[in-house]
Structures are given as C-alpha cells and as structure tokens.
Write a structure and sequence with these properties.
- By secondary structure, the protein is α+β, with helices and mostly antiparallel strands.
- Helices cover 29% and strands 23% of the residues.
- The protein folds into three domains: 44 residues, no CATH class; 53 residues, Dna Ligase, domain 1 (2-Layer Sandwich); 123 residues, ATP-grasp fold, B domain (D-amino Acid Aminotransferase, Chain A, domain 1).
- The protein has nine helices and twelve strands.
- The strands form three sheets. The chain has a six-stranded antiparallel β-sheet with strand order 11-10-7-8-9-12. The protein has a four-stranded antiparallel β-sheet with strand order 3-6-4-5, sandwiched between helices. A two-stranded parallel ribbon has the order 1-2.
- Helix 3 crosses helix 4.
- The chain is globular.
C-alpha cells in the first residue's frame, strides 16, 4: 500500500516521534533513509524503531558520523591504507595553501557549498557565505566514480557496482555509465572492513587523475546514492537485497555480476497543472534558486 504522510522537517525534535507513530500505526517493518538529512537522527534512534519491530537501514551513530564528517572520512580511508585526496582544515590550509583546491562543508551534502577555489580572496568569500567549517582538498582533474555497495549485517560485501560520473548537477549524477574496473571493486571491499557496522546500501566516491591511475577516495555516503537506479538497471537489485536480508532470506547478489557499459541519461520534463492557492506557492513572494 502506498501512503503519503506529512511529517515535521528532519532535524526537528518532533521528527523521530512522528516517524515512530507512523511505524506503530502501520506495522512498518523496514525504514530506508534516502538522504543525508536524517541519517544522524535515525542512527541515534534505531533501537526505538527496533522495539516496534522495524529495522532501519542505518549503522550506529559512531559509524554514520565517521562517514558524514568529511575530515573523519579522510582519516578512515587513510587508516584502510587506500589513497586519499589530500585534505585539511581552513586553519591548516592558510599555513600551507595550494591552488586550485576544492572546498566543501565538513558535514555537507548535495553539492551545497562545494566549489573549486583558485585564490585566497575567493576562499575568504566562500567561507563568509558558507561558514568556516570547511574541508579543503586537492583538486583532481580526471575521471570520477561512484561505487554502489551492498554490505550485509554480517559485514560481507556481496555487491559492488562502479559507475563513472559523466555529468553531475547539484551533487547528483545526470549522466553516468557502469564500468567493470576490478581495482575499484577490490578497493571498496577492503574499505568496508574499516566501516564499523554500516550495512545495506552505501556509496564510495573516488577519482583517477588519468585513466588507469590509482583511485583516490574522498567520500562515503552511508545510504542509497542518487545514481542507484543505474546500478539497479545494470542488474544489481539493491532494494531486493535489503528486503531479502530483513526477511531472513538468502541474498541473491553476486559480487561483480552486473551489465558493463550501461549508460544512464537523465533529463528534465515540464509538467503543466492548474494553479490553486497561488499565494502559497513556493517562490511566489521571492524566487527560489537551486
């Protein structure tokens, strides 16, 4: 049964109690977060959901925090012995600056506050707009990849689908292609062993300076990625694997089994509807920009 329910915004104190009431009322057995907005709240509250018989596809607060905080993510990657994009805080950067660099909020998402910085005055303006809790990284030209991963609650990686990000808009892939590159698969299998109790679907991101060069990792998202439909279309039925695990069924994933070279092309579509209650429309009083 499909059901739409209005709830308080994530981040508010009323958010989790509202979700718990929906779970209780509708006997929901599985909750799958799809954005960064409520991961921290859900990781703190997963035992409350479990008490109602509902599994939340989320790791512990500590494991999720390590992925959400970009500085700690870089430390995790280095601890795993993998190549990592050079990263530092704003304070460290000012002592030993390097340009161009890539700036992004320590706890950011969806590409908000991310930018290529070419000079110190630009960095100052960027921090004035988005805050000083920034991570500064070396800017790597070259290919970028996201690897969709499924890891069981027994901490075994059973699925890994690398996809090359060809065009990205607002942090989400617009055009991408699956690629069978074994070193990327091997790397995320190794990295997962250092990720605590993160389970279910998550993504790892990396870049190669040139085709075939060693990958440098820079981000881990402990949730479904926005480009997951490409991996699913390529044969990695990620939602099914979550259901199979929660129901105690054998997980049918096979590591390395997916369609190579499958290209995804996304586009905008205009939708036309009559306007009612015009003054309540978002952007009516002042335009919205994304």
């Amino acid at each position: 049964m499909d059901l739409g329910v209005e709830v308080p915004a994530s981040g508010r104190d009323e958010y989790i109690p509202a979700l718990l009431e929906i779970v209780r009322k509708n006997s929901i057995r599985l909750l799958v977060p799809l954005t960064d907005n409520d991961l921290a709240q859900l990781s703190k509250s997963r035992d409350e959901f479990a008490a109602l018989g509902c599994t939340v596809m989320v790791g512990s607060e500590a494991a999720v925090g390590e992925c959400m905080n970009k500085t700690r993510t870089a430390q995790l990657v280095r601890r795993a012995g993998l190549a990592c994009v050079k990263s530092c805080t704003v304070k460290e950067f000012r002592k030993n600056p390097f340009f161009p660099c890539f700036a992004k909020p320590v706890s950011g998402s969806a590409g908000i506050g991310a930018a290529v910085i070419h000079e110190m005055s630009q960095l100052n303006g960027h921090c004035a707009k988005f805050g000083k809790e920034m991570l500064l990284q070396e800017y790597l030209c070259g290919q970028e990849f996201t690897i969709d991963v499924y890891r069981t609650r027994e901490k075994k990686v059973v699925c890994a689908v690398p996809r090359q990000r060809l065009v990205v808009r607002s942090g989400e892939v617009e055009k991408g292609m699956t690629v069978r590159q074994q070193d990327l698969i091997d790397a995320v299998v190794h990295l997962a062993a250092f990720m605590g109790d993160i389970w279910g679907v998550f993504t790892c991101q990396c870049r190669r300076s040139t085709p075939g060069a060693p990958p440098k990792f820079f981000e881990i998202n402990p949730r479904f990625g926005g480009g997951a439909p490409l991996a699913i279309a390529a044969g990695a039925n990620l939602p099914l694997y979550v259901l199979q695990e929660v129901l105690g069924l054998p997980i049918t994933a096979e590591l390395g089994k997916f369609t190579d070279g499958l290209l995804m092309l996304r586009y905008d579509e205009a939708v036309f509807v009559p306007a009612n209650d015009i003054e309540s429309l978002p952007g009516y009083r002042t335009p919205m920009f994304r």
